[in-house]
Amino acid sequence: MTELRTRLADYSDLPRLADISRSTWEGSDYLEKVAARWISEGGLFVGEVDGQVIGAVKVTRMPSGVVWLEGLRVHPDFRSRGYGRRLVEFAAEVGRSAIEAGEATAMEFATYVHNSESIAIATDMGFRILEGFYIVTRPGIPACSARVEPAGDVQEELAAMEGHLSAGWTFVRNSPEGREWLLQRVDALRCGSAVFLAQRSGNCYMPLGSGIEHIDALVDGVWSHAAGRELSEHSVIVPEGSRDALGRLFDRGYESWDELSGPNMLVFGR
Length: 270
Known about the structure:
270 residues, alpha+beta, Aminopeptidase, 2 domains, twelve-stranded mixed beta sheet, two-stranded antiparallel sheet, 9 helices, 32% strand, globular
């Protein structure tokens, strides 16, 4: 295997990162949309082979002492050569250094249940599943004009939820600082009795407890908000314990990428 050189990404890497993103998950990947912001935040690393960027990985400092690993990508021409593992090992070493320095206490990441390569690498490195979620998607711009308004203070309802909280594919521990972090990245909205979160920089929606209890009002609110943003598709993410809500979501036109035998979003930690 040709030597992999890892360095911080810079803005000159954006075209190549876009190429990698467009070749991932059949063109539905999000890396291209967030790459510039990730570069400005710091912690986005690229891997080079013979001077060419062939992959990327992001290391993010999160609340509650967590180092979050995300954005692992390898260009199709360079997959199955061990470069993905090398990038994960590099990111994990950054996390270990932060833990050893007393700047963090744990490393976590999330991935799709059928991302077998990433899961195998993580398992070999001592990561274990902490929690599962379901993500379902609805294509097209829905026709709905239900009234959606700011939900106001949702701290109490957020605190009542168990486990991690979702901001799309990034998850944060449910702690006071974690909830503050989350509310800086989502809008808390209400439709009737249903409260839900809308990802500001993406197309994911996350119901709170009242949204699960009032699933039709939730869907009406999500549809109305998604239509107002002219989203060509959007996703709803629900905790593993709320699987019963999936039936009604499927009735309203949502789809899973594969047949569901369990949660299709997995949060790992070590």
